[in-house]
Specification:
This protein has about 280 residues and is an alpha/beta fold. It is built from 9 helices and 10 strands. The longest helix has 18 residues, at about 80-95. The model is unreliable at about 280-284 (pLDDT under 50).
Length: about 280
């Protein structure tokens, strides 16, 4: 079964997010752990979490993906910026431990002229400070488009971070289709090759989620501008192959396209119709 959802506002709490997802035909959802531009986070209420989990059991919705705010930069040049990232990561993981087997995605950061190797060292150092042996939350490194001085623009850079994390069993990857396309990985015409390269460099066992987005730019543009499914350079037919690929089809997919709820509902319906159909490279 295709498990697909979209990004929802967390301002109304977990149960309302789950109900909203259900209302638009989604089977999962993504949410920010706090204001995406930064700031303090509200404490979560145990009753709200319990109500959401009960709703999951009744409806089959599940596997929500928590997303860190965009403002954190674990490999910034300024120590106070790195400290803010460290404190945010630690606080988010603390709260996510209230959920069973939570997934927590974050952008690795930008090295701001220090160089990718220095960025990798700093990101791994931050993770080594916040990860705990007893935690159930899996922290996901997001694949990046390579805009500016972003770290994580290649599978090798993500592997470099993972190799330096002591508790690497707590680390996974979220693949963003727009980002890897903009990063130069041709998932429209060479999807099998890209998946094989990911497996060789990182390992498919670490791939836990997919951000499913079209791109406003051609492959390798390093721009990171999401587009609605089928209206960008990746194209609708390619997404049929992506959601049906044997290495991806059991993963949760999260839309981050430029849409309101009605647009997400239409995309979820379209992708659901394409699942396990004869759309070029679909599963048997």
């Amino acid at each position: 079964m295709l498990r697909i959802g979209c990004h929802l506002s967390s301002s109304k709490g977990f149960l309302e997010m789950a109900k909203t997802a259900r209302s638009i035909g989604a089977s999962t959802f993504q949410y920010f752990t706090r204001n995406p531009r930064g700031g303090a986070a509200k404490e979560w209420r145990k009753e709200d979490i319990e109500a959401m989990l009960e709703f999951f059991g009744q409806t089959g919705i599940g596997k929500p993906l928590a997303h860190a705010p965009y403002t954190i930069n674990a490999c910034a040049k300024e120590e106070r910026t790195r400290q803010f990232a460290l404190e945010t990561l630690a606080d988010d993981i603390r709260r996510l431990e209230m959920l069973p087997d939570a997934l927590y995605n974050f952008h690795p950061g930008s090295h701001v002229g220090q160089g990718a190797e220095a960025g990798i060292e700093l990101i791994a150092d931050a993770l080594n400070q916040v990860l705990k042996p007893e935690q159930h939350t899996t922290v996901l490194l997001e694949t990046m488009a390579g805009k500016g001085t972003e770290v994580g623009r290649t599978f090798e850079e993500l592997r470099g971070i993972i190799d330096k994390v002591e508790l690497s069993d707590k680390i996974g990857v979220c693949m963003d289709t727009c980002h890897i396309w903009d990063g130069g990985y041709d998932i429209a015409e060479r999807l099998d090759d890209v998946i094989k390269e990911f497996d060789n460099v990182i390992g498919l066992s670490r791939l836990k989620a997919v951000h499913i987005n079209d791109s406003m730019n051609p492959c390798g543009a390093h721009k990171d501008r999401h587009q609605k499914i089928g209206q960008g350079y990746i194209g609708k037919e390619a997404f049929g192959r992506i959601i049906n690929h044997p290495a991806l089809r059991e993963l949760p997919f999260y839309l981050e396209t430029p849409n309101e709820l009605d647009g997400y509902q239409a995309e979820i319906a379209m992708l659901s119709e394409m699942a396990y159909c004869d759309c070029g490279g679909a599963a048997d």
